[in-house]
């Protein structure tokens, strides 16, 4: 994964931010909408694209375009930087392959202890019962 090449493939669009802010919010487009076309990206390999398609399936559109919006600050430039950071961290975390789990067996001492406690509780519960009068 080449970060510089991926950043070049990003498309940005400035939109008017929602919420409170008075007259300023009605005039200035500070919200940033970042779009990334996963299907036509040249910075990612086919294997990476397939992995991202499966992991980011809920965030992708039907044309496999990832859309991120950032409106945290009043500055358009800061929002753009935040969007890039958010996008790169999202890609990096979803490209990591999880460690393969090595199956282990419980030790003999643990098995013995578990069976002993089971026996003790069963005896304790048996003593709670009313005796049979025959």
UniProtKB/TrEMBL annotation:
One of its GO terms (biological process) is rescue of stalled ribosome. Residues 16-32 form the Prokaryotic-type class I peptide chain release factors domain. Signal peptide: none annotated. SUPFAM superfamilies: Release factor (SSF75620). Pfam families: RF-1. Keywords: Hydrolase. Belongs to the prokaryotic/mitochondrial release factor family. This is Aminoacyl-tRNA hydrolase.
């Amino acid at each position: 994964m080449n970060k510089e090449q991926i950043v070049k493939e990003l498309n940005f669009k400035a939109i008017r931010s929602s919420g409170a802010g008075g007259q300023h919010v009605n005039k200035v487009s500070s919200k940033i909408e970042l779009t990334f076309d996963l299907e036509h990206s040249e910075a990612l390999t086919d294997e990476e694209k397939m992995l991202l398609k499966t992991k980011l399936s809920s965030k992708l559109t039907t044309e496999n375009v990832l859309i991120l919006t950032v409106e945290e600050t009043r500055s358009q430039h800061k929002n753009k930087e935040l969007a890039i950071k958010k996008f790169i961290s999202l890609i990096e975390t979803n490209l990591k392959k999880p460690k393969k789990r090595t199956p282990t067996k419980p030790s003999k001492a643990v098995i013995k202890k578990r069976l002993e406690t089971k026996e003790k509780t069963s005896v304790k519960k048996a003593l709670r019962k009313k005796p049979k009068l025959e």
